[in-house]
Amino acid sequence: MRRRRKSWMNPKLKLIILFTLIVCAGVAAGMLFTPVFHIQEVYCEGNSRLASEDIIAAAQVQTGKNILTENLSQIKKRVLELPMVEEAGVRRVFPNKIKIWVRERIPAAYIYTDNQCAIVDLDGKILEMITDGRVEEWVKTYTPVHTQQAEENAEKDEAEDPDSAAKPTGSAKPTASAKPGSSAKPTSSAKPTGSAQPTNSAKPTGSAVPEDDKQENMENANTQQEETTALPYQAPLIVGLKLEKPTAGKNAESKENEKLSSTLETLRCLEKVGLLERATYFDVTSIHDVILVIENRLEVELGNLENMEYRSAFLAKVINEKISATEQVIMDYRGEDIYVRQPEDGQARMVAKPSASPKPSASTKPDSTASASAKPESTASASAKSSASPNISVDAKQSENESN
Fold first, then answer.
1. 127-146 pLDDT tens trace
2. Where is the composition biased (Acidic residues) (predicted)?
3. Distance (Å, rounded) from C-alpha 356 to C-alpha 335?
4. Residue in 257, 253, 233 with CA at minimum distance from that of residue 244
């Protein structure tokens, strides 16, 4: 006679498990339907360039919806579609909040093409397209003028051919209209002078604008001008590179692939040595005659863009150690040497480096405007002697009184 199998579970244990399941189901139903877990707030962290409102709008999170039913992976995917976002994360913050974290791409340059600007990062991804009137203002403000003689010639050409005034020049001398930094202030000619005030012969009547209101109006006008000419991000304006159908969120493409890749590689090299955020203008119209402007005051004639990793490091060393913070000079770096001259001087004074530094004589005194030539070490020995300072020779310049 067979024995009956005993039940594998005690009846009391069955009741406990059943009760637990009922409680869990009730709790789950309560969490799904109770207003406590309805989303009341969505907030962002990590964004500095993108507005939180834009990120939240892209995330498409519905307030009032239950926090447990939101698909976090879909929210993340929608946020990553923003061109400025490189990485994103989404998490629930109980009982009723959604947190969105982003890491933004860093704008590296403004590429001027077809009367619009494409803001790109170091990988060449287009983060934003600017097509309004600011673009022409930026080109006008940040395109430098080479010499005083060039300005006079441009005025003559404009008088003969008015259409030529709209063409920006390619080579560079920084003008006073654009100060170092990412923002540019109006020139002194644009500011109201004292002559604009009413004279004794023409006193303002009772209907004239009060003096305080005049001052406020002038300040507002100056502020609007600064906002128009100021770049949103601290990055150089690149001219001479035409992009094909630039679109935000897409990679920059050009028929001049070699020029585009060389330009992006140069930007990466400048970023490594801390010069990219100080650069304000980059002319690559001719890939063999490239012009770089640092802080709207240092024009660097680079020539071609070969071996830029070493050349950028050497250029940064010369600028940081040999050029003052307020000096405006032209730096010829088209060969192995760097020659420095004042922008007003059309002739480059190049000095051969002597074997020993000569002592200044009584008749020859060093001048603050003297030109300097800097010769880097050869590329092969650069890595072995990277800590050595560059050899700078100075051309002493006699004053006019001494020459007389």
1. 999 999 899 999 988 888 65
2. 152-163
3. 23
4. 253
